[in-house]
Design brief:
362 residues, Dihydrodipicolinate Reductase, domain 2, 2 domains, 11 helices, 15 strands, 24% strand
């Protein structure tokens, strides 16, 4: 079978996760890697087959002409890297969430990909965890009856976590279109971070099939006591809960705390499961090869799915800045981050759990 050439840009933690997963898969050859830090490149290269290295992403991509162009960079650097991936002729572009920082940029990215016909994948890879898949299986089986609510909560701030909460709950709801969103925001600390968002965002989304989405993300989010962050602060990031409620039961997944469900026919059920890049990355990468092989095998993390969640996230930001409901899909692009910087009050968030205070200092 065909082997696909890959260029990976960004050799930080997530870039190495991707590069090593591509290198371990016989369907891919890591042909080039890029980072602005040459020492980081020299350290990474022997671990992934000694590909060509460069500090110039555009020059490297145009020289190698990869089948797959992957970039794992800070979130304010999306548009130019997508342009490079299209211009070098890549058949598929893979990149980190969120899709973009603003709807103005996100709409541009979508137009570029649509015009070029380039496939794209966005890294919402937690879904490959056995506990996530089990919850989707229960929901899809009809055991919950008519699903009327999906929900997600996480203590990590929105630039990191809201995209995940929305994407997986949209998956639980079979990616039904959203009709409107309404939200509030609080806390300015993370508006100064490179992963830029308010410290706390909470809101509701109405989906076309009548399902209501409820999202609670950041400093004011409730505890997920099933995850004991006292063991190590890293686990604080995994205090995330997503689920669905129906007329005959509920089912939910906890990122680092397994899954549980109660249904009319099956009673109470539960199981284990933790987020694990070692386990989650291989199927995420393999399904890129499958989609490159066959257009009909659309990747579960395809841009079309991620963009739906991105629009919802942008609509929540707009609502928090402007007030009221925001209709979906979005028809125009704006800079939601600038709007939030102008509108979010300069008051610290009231936090339900002490671990959050460590991440959201005064």
């Amino acid at each position: 079978m065909k082997t696909y050439k890959v260029v990976v840009v960004g050799m930080g933690k997530r870039g190495m996760h991707h590069a090593q997963a591509f290198h371990a898969n016989p369907r891919f050859q890591v042909a080039g890697i890029c980072d602005i830090d040459k020492a980081r490149l020299e350290a990474a290269a022997p671990k992934i087959g000694n590909p060509e290295i460069s500090t110039d992403a555009k020059a490297l991509a145009n020289k190698i002409k990869p089948d797959l162009y992957c970039f794992c960079t800070l979130p304010h650097l999306r548009l130019d890297f997508v342009k490079t991936g299209v211009e070098c002729g890549a058949k598929l572009i893979a990149f980190e969430k969120p899709v973009a920082m603003t709807s103005a940029e996100g709409i541009q990215i979508k137009r570029i990909l649509d015009k070029a016909g380039t496939k794209a994948v966005v890294s919402h890879q937690h879904r490959y965890g056995a506990h996530y898949k089990k919850i989707k299986e229960i929901i899809a089986s009809g055991a919950l009856g008519r699903v009327h609510t999906v929900y997600g909560t996480a203590t990590g701030w929105a630039a990191h976590m809201l995209s995940h909460l929305i994407d997986y709950t949209c998956w639980f709801n079979d990616y039904q279109p959203a009709e409107w969103a309404m939200a509030q925001a609080a806390g300015r600390g993370k508006l100064a971070d490179l992963h830029t968002s308010p410290d706390y965002v909470a809101g509701v989304v109405h989906y076309k099939n009548g399902v209501r989405g409820i999202y609670d993300c950041g400093a004011g989010a409730p505890d997920v006591p099933e995850v004991d962050a006292s063991k190590e602060q890293r686990l604080w990031w995994r205090k995330a809960r997503m689920g669905a409620q129906g007329t005959e039961g509920f089912a939910e997944v906890i990122t680092n705390g397994g899954w549980r469900a109660v249904t009319k026919s099956g009673g109470a059920q539960s199981g284990t499961g933790n987020m694990d890049y070692v386990e989650d990355m291989p199927p995420y990468v393999q399904e890129m090869a499958d989609w490159l092989d066959d257009d009909k095998k659309m990747h579960p993390c395809a841009f079309a799915h991620a963009y739906q969640g991105f629009e919802i996230m942008a609509a929540m930001y707009r609502s928090a800045a402007e007030g009221g409901q925001v209709a979906l899909p979005l028809t125009t692009g704006v800079d939601e981050i600038a709007m939030l910087k102008a509108k979010v009050p300069d008051r610290r968030v009231l936090m339900p759990i002490p671990e959050s205070a460590k991440e959201y200092p005064a």
